[in-house]
Amino acid sequence: MVRSMTGYGAADGQRWQVEVRSTNHRFLEVVVRLPRELGALEERVRAAVAQRVRRGRVEVLVRDEGGSRCREAVVDTELARRYAQALDRLRQELGLEEPVSLQSLLSLPEVVRLEEVRADAEAVWGDLRPVLDQALEGLVTMRTAEGQRLAEDLRRRLVRLEAWVDQVARRAEELPAAYGERLRQRVAELLRGLHPDYAPDEGRLAMEVAAYADRCDVREELVRLRSHLQEARTLLDADQGAVGRKLEFLLQEMQREVNTLGSKAADLEVSRAVVEMKSELEAIREQVQNLE
User: Fold this and answer.
1) Where are the domains of the chain?
2) CATH top-level class for 7-68+120-144?
3) Of the candidates 186, 169, 178, 171, which has an alpha carbon nearest to the alpha carbon of residue 229?
4) Buried b or exposed e, range 57-68, using 16+ CB within 10 angstroms
5) Is the distance from CB of 288 to CB of 2 less than 8 angstroms?
6) What is the pLDDT of residues 89-136, one digit of tens each?
């Protein structure tokens, strides 16, 4: 199903809270913000996102809601021994009787320090992955719902675009005859000014009309344009979600065909239809830029 690139999802676990939000981007860009001690899991988070999302800028925020970090006291025994030896020498030099106490050693810098216990990556991932999956499910659900609304709007615009194509096709069939009639009238007026008995050369007129009909023949452009329209509908109805870039390519091709229509069929009615088609294509392009 067609999905938008804009969405949001969140989930809470016993310890971990995950928020996922996505915006438009030409490719897939995943930004992961984890607690410092979970840095080893960043690539796993990226891979989990890539399994569910194909396009867009996705931001993943993981918070630790389990309370304070687990820390342990670490005693530098070697440093304490050196402190004790240095203090004992000082005591002897000063002639002091009081021995070096444990309390005085523990108060010295770096003898005892607190270190965070390194988290077990596998255990943490086992707790975090279900919460991440739930948040991603919410994100995909929102992107799918918005994508369906965008797809409906695009289908309506494609119908309007096809109506303009049909109008150009009808007008294109009339152009040679209309041109021939205007040419005949113009030549007759010119000949009457020269001699009232002169009549237009029908053979020459027919050759000129045939040449004009060849120059303004837009049947191939219309066939390709209708083919692109049908392919766009097929993509909107497809099961695969990532169709945005394919639709962008089709729109470029449709724009090219419409430009050719305007240049080949030099007619006021066709020119007006081309302006409307370009306007509709621009509106479609803006919507397609929101699709995955």
Assistant:
1) 7-68+120-144, 71-116, 147-288
2) alpha beta
3) 169
4) bbbbebebeeee
5) no
6) 887 888 777 888 888 878 888 888 876 656 678 888 999 999 999 999
